[in-house]
Amino acid sequence: MLAKVKICMGTHCTMMGNLNLQENLEDLQLEYPGKIEIEAVKCLKFCEDNKAPVVELNGKIITNASAEKIISEILEVVR
Ligand code: FES
């Protein structure tokens, strides 16, 4: 199945690591050609209450999105 990933590039999420995350996901995208779509989006409005960084994966909002957490969720979708 295709993994559609929206990475929040709002100020808060960017400061909390989403720029790094984007680079990691671009590497992952090379390993799974045609299976991962990455889109950088504006603030998803979930950044209050220490929930940043935020990523949306196939419509599901994932808060406190560490690279490990996101990559393992993406792998479940694409494998
Ligand atoms: S900056 Fe990412 S949810 Fe607001």
Automatic annotation (TrEMBL):
Gene3D superfamilies: Glutaredoxin (3.40.30.10). Pfam families: 2Fe-2S_thioredx. InterPro entries: Thioredoxin-like_sf. This is Thioredoxin-like [2Fe-2S] ferredoxin. It comes from Tissierella praeacuta DSM 18095. The lineage of its organism: Bacteria, Bacillati, Bacillota, Tissierellia, Tissierellales.
